[in-house]
Predict the structure.
Amino acid sequence: MKNMLLTLKGPMQSWGTSSRFTKRRTSSEPSKSGIIGLLAAAQGRRRVDPVEDLVDLKMAVRIDQPGTRERDFHTTLSFDGKTAYPLSDRYYLADAVFVVGLSGETALIEALNEALAKPKFPLYLGRRAFPPMTPIRPKLSEGNLVDDLDVYPWQAASWYQKKVSRKTTWTSSSPLDLENEKVSLEVVADLDLLPEDRRDDCIFDQVHDVPLSFDSHHRQYEWRDVVRWKCEVPTDIAATETEPLFLTTHNPGGMW
């Protein structure tokens, strides 16, 4: 068995699990169907090709930077300008960063690693209009995937890390513990990845995002059990690096 950690970041992402008709919603973290679709695209699989081996991968997602949920209101016409299509609301996450952990057979993980280095089809973060900000370069490891997520460096943008550290200076409620140089991040994972002795204070849920078929004429999904918890991740931000919110060196009038 082998693990793979993917850092997903981009201006926009959208991970739908329950979207229907004119309301195209997004989850707060990548869906398993979205990640499997990304991996299948990297390998050059068609929508009608089987994905059972990818479905068997165990998955966990760490939310390093939650981003903000935005709405895009769509009004569209046909090419001839005569037919108006239904109005729709498309939701997406702006400025989000996730670490996606996958665990599976060594041969499959290594094949996916090679495919992501030279993808056959373009890769995107949930929707075709949302490409990743940087090439997706996995980190491979062996052992326990949950332990890997506990020690993998915080991948949030530097401006977001500074924003969180400033919040700590001005308020007592923040996910960042500057004294111990730790940040508390939410993890959403397949239930069987988390040992039972670590399931205290966890939230249990079900998500309808396991793809049985991507065939556009016969798409099928099934449910999976997931668990949510907080992990403490090391960070190199120290209290001495924190600046007051309103401190500035800008001096337009030259009077100070």
